[in-house]
Structures are given as C-alpha cells and as structure tokens.
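Many introductory courses stop at the sequence. We go one step further.
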Amino acid sequence: MRTRNREPQTLGEGTLDRMARILAARNIDPAVVTALVDEPEPFSPLDALSAGMPPRYQAAVADHPQVLAWARAVAEVAVAPSPGARRQVTTGPSLLMAGVVGAGKTHQAYGAVRRLVQSGVGVRWRATTAADLYADLRPRPGVDSERELAAVGRCPLLIIDDLGAAKASEWVEEVTYRLINRRYNHMLPTLITTNLAIKDLRAYLGDRVTSRLAQMTTRVEFEPVDRRRHRTAA
C-alpha cells in the first residue's frame, strides 16, 4: 500500500472568513479561540515531576540538612548530554534514612527529588517500596524478572522505601544484594528509607548488602518522633 507524503496545508482567507462567520453566529469571540490555540498552558519540569508522584507527596519539601546536602552533591555532578542541553543526573552519592514509622523519611525522599528539579537538573527516576519491588521481581509465568531487575538497577535515580519491611529470606537477601551491588558499581544515586535501626540492618540484609550500603551511602538517623501522630495530637 502506497502512502502519500503531503505538505502541511495552510488555511486560505476564504476558509478563515467562513470560520469567523460561524463563530460570530454562535456568539463566540474569535480572539478567545485564537488565544487558546496560540498560548497553551505552560507545563514546567516541576509540574511534570509532581504529576508522576503520589498525591500525598506532590508538595513534599526536603528540609533536613543532610538530605539537602545530598541534593546539592547530586546536582553538582550532573552533566549535560550535549552543549546547551539541560544537565541530567547520571551518577552521584546515595542516602540511607533510618527512623521510626511516621518520622518523615518518605516525605524527605520525595522532597529531595523535587529539590533537584527546582535546581534546574533533569532526572529520570523511579520510586518503589521494598515490598512492591520484591513482588515485581519474584519469578512467575509471563514475566521477565531479570529484565525488570536490570531496568530498576540502571535507573538514574531510585527511591527504595521501607527497606526491611518485607519478610526476610535467602531470595530477598540475594535480590537486594544484586540490585544494590549494581547501583554501587555504577555509582547511581539511591535514596533508601528504613524503619530499622541502622545497627539492625545487618541481621536482616546480611553482610554483603550492609557492606555495600556502608560504602555507598551517607546514613541519617531521624529522631524517634512519629510526626503523623504529633500532627494528629496538635
């Protein structure tokens, strides 16, 4: 089947006059229609980022000093893929945030990504809870688990929320090691939150994972205050 390549068509004066008469007959101001067509609503990088976030965290603001320091460090090493292009996150340090449920770790993680975008840096990112991650990677018919693991492993910026919340097993330890080791080797920035105390991570994750985490992350222990309960009480 042959296809024709047609040149873009322009509207002639006769067509424009007919459109104007139709609009006038319907009491529609042609100037309003022209403004809507010629001036689309602006859509900023921050708008695009917020659209991909869970509603609860779309307005998250990072204010923890060490989280802000992490965002600055990642932004400083961002590179432009070509002259004049926007700088993109490609490598950088990682951050491990530990604290009780409700301490604000997830809020800070999403706020850190927003902070990067606000600084003018482009970032391709992905966020998942550890439980969802293991569910996605568990071998099952019709799913290429290895391909999914590779996709998560090479994502420029990854948030892993609630590490340590899933039931421990040899398979969980092995998958976690493979993911963390890949990101460690390629120096890909990773934001990790956990409800476990840092000293308890080794018992859950094993020596290989905790060794990699110790080398690749700055560790932050949040105050043992459940902010959700505190706001409710207030």
